[in-house]
Specification:
By secondary structure, the protein is mostly helical. It has a domain of 33 residues. Helix 1 packs across helix 2. The longest helix is centred in the last third of the chain and has 30 residues.
């Protein structure tokens, strides 16, 4: 099998990249599906936290 595969480490990736990969990426091996679900939840939570912080900073700078 000569199939091209793109492997990316998600440990230190930006949350937006994690969410995109977990939503659109193709799962090749899934020995522990709950780990993928927890990682997706954590990435969405982190992305939401960053969004809230961004809005607060934007409001402070616009004053």
């Amino acid at each position: 099998m000569n199939i091209p595969v793109d492997v990316k480490m998600l440990d230190y990736a930006p949350p937006s990249f994690k969410v995109e990969v977990l939503n659109k990426g193709r799962v090749v091996v899934d020995r522990e599906p709950y780990t993928r679900i927890i990682l997706k939840w954590a990435a969405l939570s982190e992305l939401n936290d960053l969004s809230i912080k961004y809005k607060k900073i934007k409001n402070i700078l616009s004053e």
